């Protein structure tokens, strides 16, 4: 799926879950959901996420940037902080650096669980309700990305690095094809209609 579709599906998923749980929605939770919805594509040097991170969008620069960030975080954590989640973050960044698009950790359950753990552990101490919104937004955005990509013909390696087999749904479409663009266009249109009415109502109910 394209980045825009992933964002739309992620927001839609988060709003539905938050509405059912009655926890409301905030600008921060929306931003986190958008971030999480495109985060799995950090393994692609030309993905939406890397558009704002990499000075030059190619595999060599992606490898250098992510390896450098990961090693720096691990080194600084070893010297000064000793926080388990920072070791996890550094390791994830290094694995993103060496991964190819949909061939590595960001499109796997291991990556998904690692990111949720890092954010969940790192957000301890903040308001309990806001923390719940953050975690729900993260799970909705990231999880819907993996699920959405399973509807494309390339699938995702859910059990990487233990198994590189790619999993996909019985019915799939090719991203960028006529059928694929139609499906994604319909999803985005319906999502916009729903979110346009639902988000203001959730905000009103919070006040």
From TrEMBL:
Transmembrane spans: 22-42, 63-81, 105-122, 134-151, 171-197
One MF term in the entry's GO annotations? hydrolase activity
Give the record's keywords alphabetically.
Answer: Hydrolase, Membrane, Transmembrane, Transmembrane helix
Under InterPro entries, the record lists: YdjM-like
Specify the superkingdom. Bacteria
Write down a Pfam family by its short name.
YdjM
Q: Is Plastid among this UniProt entry's keywords?
A: no
What protein name is recorded for this chain? Putative membrane-bound metal-dependent hydrolase
